[in-house]
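User: I'll paste a sequence; please echo it back and then give the predicted structure.

Assistant: Echoing your sequence first, then the prediction.
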Amino acid sequence: MNTPDFTAQRAALADVVAIPVTPFGEDGRIDTEAHRVLLRRLLDAGVRTLTPNGNTGEFYALDPQERRAAVELTAGASQGQAVIIAGVGHDVPTAVEAALHAQDNGAQMVMVHQPVHPYVSADGWVDYHHAIAEAVPELGVVPYIRNARLPGSRLAELGEACPNVIGVKYAVPDPVTFATFAREAGMDRFVWVAGLAESYAPSYFSAGATGFTSGLVNVAPAISLSMIEALRAGDYPAAMKVWEQIRRFEELRADDGAAYNVTVVKEALSSLGLCRRDVRPPSSPLPSAVRAEVAAIAGEWSL
């Protein structure tokens, strides 16, 4: 059996990997029209990698039907203009079913959310991802790693068993840990995506990352694209100018253990008239005192 060529998928990971929001209407359901407008805005700006059902899309607050709808809406809006990486997770059968649905609807990759379980062993982590990757051999598979204790050797083991595990969204907030993990796993074997967005992108790129995820891109796609251009050129002073520009916005998202990670993005979009600010529990709306600050930042970026 021939191994599929994942060249296009690997290239898509070495880019701004956008995590679109999932806008809700007044009735609490997905606002499909606002969803299309937001996706079209990203595509028109030049974003070419989209991850429906990422954390900025409130993956864990969506029911299975809504997660399927998010993939279908993204595929319909992109019409082949973007590479789609569908977020999947939960138990293995649910993740496999979601991956197969994504494949049927034009996704080229799946991003596997970290296993949500109180007892995760390294062996179990490998088995979990192996089962998902094995079920969709023609899709690129991207583990989402937030566990600083997982050794790179276990990812190398997974990659040896599953050729379609092609990239990693690494989201441990420690560039040294990332650099060590990537070298233990194999720098060239995987595409390394800085999973903590623009704030960590410069430091992670210096250690070998070639792409980064972004929720901020929903608000100001030109800013995210300017950072990837600077990083690709090795122009770290230019990248840090972008970092300074987005610093306060990302600090607000990270505040209180990232409690307002999605809320800040939706508040900014609401201030621009692009969607409602509504988020679902266990997230919550921004305190009123912070809303004006978010609106001011978004307004300045939109000039």
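The first helix runs from residue 7 to 13. The radius of gyration is 18 Å.
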